[in-house]
Design goal:
alpha+beta, four-stranded antiparallel beta sheet, 10 helices, globular
């Protein structure tokens, strides 16, 4: 399929080899605009594509992952392939930037990890991932005070300023406590439907600032596909009427959070 002197093999996902999967990948282009195909070993297959070695070897790939614009492009291409395959049934998304020297190394991985991949595929069949993030409301909304509220009647400007600061702190603390309670209520409600939950680390830094407010909970849930809308409705109902709290529900996604532990280093040529 490829000239290994010039190309490497980018791996997107593990799935079952079926005629539907073969037809699906035939219509897909990958992270380098390459034609995606299947590498098969009996009852397992990997969706892969040939990528230029000068761009996806260890050093250039590391540089790509450190540059935000190129990283975002890579992530979009990777997700595009995985999401196109997800409707076929269970798909195990591989880690972003999983690259092998050649297709023989892909086959070796499928064979050596068969007893891990097959139970995962069985467990994820008919299930999808939903994301739930709980935030305090941003800025003055969380604090419950605006610039126009800066002073109390009869106070000097200095005392009015200090009073306003105390009010903002109390408002922010109230919003934080409300978000924590809401997150716990959501976890209870979601647990009635979801079969698994992964609590990711809350977002911090610039990413959290872009979303607005403090991220209190950042959870992923594995949900039966036929109960997806029920799940979403119950999560939103659990957050209804909570002032100073914002809830974000996203999905359905391929089960990135529930698919795989990292591949053994010997099988991951670049990652």
């Amino acid at each position: 399929m490829t000239d290994i002197a010039q190309h490497m093999v980018y791996a997107y996902a593990v799935l079952r080899p079926t005629p539907e999967a073969a037809r699906a990948v035939a219509a897909l282009r990958g992270v380098a605009g390459e034609q995606v195909g299947l590498v098969e070993t009996g009852d397992l297959a990997a969706a892969v594509g040939p990528v230029p070695a000068e761009e996806f070897g260890e050093a250039p790939l590391k540089a790509r992952l450190e540059e935000l614009t190129r990283l975002e492009s890579l992530a979009r291409g990777h997700h595009g392939v995985v999401s196109a395959l997800a409707p076929l049934g269970a798909v195990l998304p591989l880690r972003l930037a999983t690259v092998y020297r050649d297709e023989d190394r892909v086959r070796q991985t499928l064979q050596e990890r068969r007893n891990e991949f097959l139970p995962l595929l069985e467990r994820l069949t008919g299930r999808v991932e939903w994301g739930v993030k709980v935030y305090t409301a941003a800025g003055e909304e969380a604090a419950g005070v605006s610039e126009g509220d800066a002073g109390d009647a009869g106070l000097s400007p200095g005392r009015a300023y200090l009073a306003a600061r105390r009010k903002r702190r109390r408002g922010a603390e109230d919003a934080w406590q409300a978000a924590v309670r809401t997150a716990a209520r959501i976890a209870d409600e979601a647990g009635e439907i979801a079969v698994e939950r992964v609590a990711h680390r809350p977002q911090r830094g610039e990413l959290a600032k872009a979303e607005g407010g403090e991220n209190i909970a950042n959870d992923a849930y594995l949900v039966p596909a036929d109960r997806a809308e029920d799940f979403r409705a119950r999560v939103l109902a659990a957050a209804e009427g909570q002032e100073g709290v914002r809830v974000e529900v996203t999905g359905p996604w391929a089960p990135y959070s529930f698919a795989l532990p990292p591949a053994p280093a010997a099988h991951r040529e670049s990652a």
